[in-house]
Automatic annotation (TrEMBL):
The chain crosses the membrane at residues 47-71, 78-97, 147-170, 291-312, 324-342, 371-391. This is Sporulation integral membrane protein YlbJ. Coiled coil: none annotated. The keyword RNA-binding does not apply. InterPro entries: Gate_dom, Spore_IM_YlbJ. Residues 44-140, 218-314 form the Nucleoside transporter/FeoB GTPase Gate domain.
């Protein structure tokens, strides 16, 4: 009872402090809010929406169940999850955060995963997509395309390692999964047909539901991105970030990391894009030290992503705690892999190759501006479609 009351008081004080901070720093809050909105409008929404819609349609048509039957002999021994987890893993890598959590929750709602299997799957199917690692971090921030290969290798190796470790989560259920299945195309096709018949939604209804569900999820993601962008800025203005940076600086000295990286690291714990940018701008730091720290925050994913995933998983009975522990593990593994592979992979292999000077950053910067404009236009058009579908369904509901 006391802990519950204390929690209520702490939450109330935190919300009050946030409100007072918004009043005290209105201009800075608006600027941070606009920065988060632009990121969502131009990049996050247009890049994730197609994956979400197609995923919903593939689940409804039974394709995911078909893939699950085929991949069962592979995914079950390695990660202790059904074959459908292979689809979630691939889509999570291709589209990035928080697609893995979204699809895991969807399969749990479909009954294709048990609670323990869903918690295992969610723990290792959420990762940064290659476009962010190569385009935003390596080329955009560091102007070094070769660094992207190093970061991607460490990030996905850490992801696979977490998957192997999480297979031991929920030991009581392992004994129930001893039945071995062989790959059967006939069984997979039968499962696809059965799933489509059981769904029983017309194509138009299924497509409309896919758009509605995907846009609602992305609106929630956009809210978290804007909130944490503002929160990150306010923590810096209130000198809370520099305060914690002093403690981090002491820890960094023990592992021979420069103190200049302490504030960027704390920013990265909240939001990985801002943290990666600040790390790339840190002076008097070695590239390897920057790469190790970026691998750590990419693996951890940032509290902004954690909040997005927690909100998605809350719609089911999936526990968030395994996901949080897995992110800490992946951040640690990715940092260690970066340190271990730096000499043999980056220094020995990539450092001796000539970097083509013709692409470059000017081209990518110009193309980024164009794609940002297209992304914003695409987002606005889809939101207009969403409003029309929503309004039509509301009118239909009132009539019938």
């Amino acid at each position: 009872m006391f802990r519950s009351k204390l929690k209520s008081i702490i939450l109330a004080l935190a919300a009050s402090l946030l409100a007072l901070s918004l009043i005290a720093f209105p201009q800075e809050s608006v600027a941070a809010s606009v920065r988060g909105l632009n990121m969502w409008l131009e990049i996050v929404f247009p890049s994730l929406l197609p994956f979400f819609i197609v995923s919903e349609m593939l689940i409804g048509f039974g394709v995911v169940r078909f893939i699950g039957v085929l991949l069962e002999p592979f995914m079950r021994p390695l990660f202790r999850v059904p074959g459908a987890g292979g689809f979630v893993w691939a889509m999570g890598m291709a589209s990035g955060f928080p697609a893995g959590a979204k699809l895991t929750a969807r399969l749990r709602q479909e009954g294709q995963l048990t609670k323990i299997e869903a918690e295992r799957l969610a723990s290792f199917t959420n990762s940064s997509n290659p476009l962010f690692i190569f385009g935003a971090v390596s080329v955009g921030f560091f102007e070094n395309a070769k660094l992207g290969i190093m970061l991607a290798a460490a990030h996905y190796l850490g992801n696979i390692t977490v998957g192997f470790i999480m297979r031991f989560y929920g030991k009581d259920e392992i004994r129930k999964e001893t039945n071995k299945k062989n790959i059967s195309l006939r069984a997979a096709l039968s499962a696809l047909h059965k799933t489509r018949i059981e769904d029983n939604r017309p194509i138009g209804k299924l497509l409309g539901d896919a758009v509605m569900s995907s846009v609602q999820t992305l609106l929630m993601i956009g809210g978290f991105i804007i909130l944490f962008s503002v929160l990150n800025q306010l923590l810096f203005l209130l000198h809370i970030t520099p305060f914690f940076a002093n403690t981090i600086t002491f820890l960094f000295q023990l592992i021979r990391m420069p103190a200049e990286l302490s504030i960027p690291f704390i920013s990265g714990l909240f939001e990985i894009t801002l943290g990666s940018q600040l790390i790339s701008e840190a002076k008097d730091t070695a590239l390897m030290q920057q790469a190790v720290l970026i691998s750590l925050i990419l693996g951890f994913s940032g509290l902004s992503v954690h909040a997005q995933v927690a909100s998605i998983l809350a719609q089911t009975d999936i526990n968030f705690k395994p996901f949080f522990i897995a992110r800490i593990l992946q951040g640690g593994f990715a940092a260690v892999y970066t340190y271990i592979l730096w000499q043999p992979l980056y220094t020995e292999v990539f450092d001796h190759e000539e970097t083509p000077s013709a692409i470059p950053v000017s081209f990518l910067q110009n193309s980024t501006v164009q794609w940002a404009d297209i992304g914003a236009l695409f987002t606005i058009c889809i939101l207009a479609v969403y409003v029309m579908i929503y309004a039509k369904r509301m009118v239909w509901t009132k009539k019938y």
